[in-house]
Design brief:
By secondary structure, the chain is α/β, with parallel strands linked by helices. It contains 9 helices and 7 strands; from the N terminus they run βαβαβαβαβαβααβαα.
């Protein structure tokens, strides 16, 4: 499939105030797309939208919204309609992370994983898929993770909900293909953002060793593959090969993660 031209078209990006979400916005703005930037953090979101407008000269509308509220998809679509914006792309990027024993995780945190990674991702995807199907084109990118193949101690809610996102997105991609709508699951390995709480010196070391990737590079490559109609993107040959071996990890190694990291209280 030839890469689609998105100049002047409208992309909706969630989790857009920083990290990979902001890099998605920059990548799309570089290609001339107009943006609806959605995030829960009001001040950083408005600052990020102002930067996008000033640097790239495109329209960037900030929308402060908690995506875990039940009517979040309807609020976004109403906001777009009020601005007379016709969306062409949805990037479902908003997410949370924690590394802890599940029994030591608060009920509120567990519910947040379900509401954001499962409920919000599902309903936003379905609402936009219906809209795009009626028009006959459109793109949806849902952020899964390499952890969807990694049921490890400390990652129960993160890996489980990311596995759901991948399975859901793959199914939706097959359903939408006949209607000209392209849906892709992005499953990155380590990305150099603040999501995982890695100290700056370790982040720099991991970048030098190639263990993690810069978020701007990942965003550019993910958007390229989405616009070419790919259904899944896993960044890096090492990550793609690792998937073959993750399922073979013996229980003793998984328990080492628990004993050395979680039980000793290294994580927060």
């Amino acid at each position: 499939m030839r890469k689609a031209d998105i100049k002047g078209k409208v992309a909706v990006v969630t989790g857009a105030s920083g990290g990979i979400g902001l890099e998605f916005c920059k990548t799309l703005a570089e290609r001339g797309a107009r943006l609806l930037m959605v995030a829960i953090d009001d001040a950083p979101l408005h600052e990020a939208a102002a930067v996008i407008r000033d640097v790239y000269g495109v329209e960037a509308y900030p929308m402060t919204l908690d995506l875990t509220v039940p009517d979040a998809p309807e609020r976004i679509l109403s906001y777009l309609a009020n601005l007379n914006l016709d969306p062409f792309m949805l990037v479902n990027n908003a997410g949370i992370f924690s590394f802890n024993n599940l029994t030591d995780t608060s009920d509120a945190k567990i519910q947040a994983f379900i509401r954001l990674h499962v409920d919000a991702t599902t309903m936003l995807s379905v609402r936009f898929a219906r809209y795009f199907r009626q028009r006959g084109d459109g793109f949806i990118l849902n952020m899964s993770s390499m952890s969807c193949w990694m049921p490890m101690p400390g990652l129960a809610m993160y890996s489980a909900t990311k596995a759901y996102i991948r399975a859901f997105t793959r199914s939706l991609a097959y359903e939408m293909r006949d209607y000209g709508v392209h849906v892709m699951a992005a499953c990155p390995g380590g990305i150099a953002t603040d999501l995982f709480g890695l100290p700056p010196h370790l982040k720099r070391l991991a970048l030098r060793l190639g263990a993690i990737e810069r978020p701007d590079r990942f965003a550019r490559r993910a958007v390229d593959r989405l616009l070419r109609g790919r259904m899944q993107y896993i960044n890096g040959l090492t990550n793609r090969l690792a998937i073959l071996f993750i399922g073979l990890l013996p229980t003793c190694l998984r328990m080492q993660v628990k004993h050395r990291l979680i039980d000793r209280g290294i994580t927060k």
